[in-house]
Description:
By secondary structure, the protein is mainly alpha-helical. The protein has one domain. It is built from 3 helices and no strands. Helix 1 crosses helix 3. The longest helix is centred in the first third of the chain and has 36 residues, at 3-38. The chain is elongated.
Amino acid sequence: xxxxxxxxxxxxxxxxxxxxxxxxxxxxxxxxxxxxxxxxxxxxxxxxxxxxxxxxxxxxxxxxxxxxxxxxxxxx
Length: 76
């Protein structure tokens, strides 16, 4: 195993890290959009501070589904 293998592995690791960060940012943006546009009377952050587990599960589900959509979108 030469330095070529190591450099390609590090390059792939870098691409995957960037991909993960982009997916995370898109997911958070989608969650904020849903919070602001669709649920105007409910503040997710305030409900999370109160310990509302239903909101936490709902936000987790939104992030999971957005991550799946972004994953399939990036893979083409």
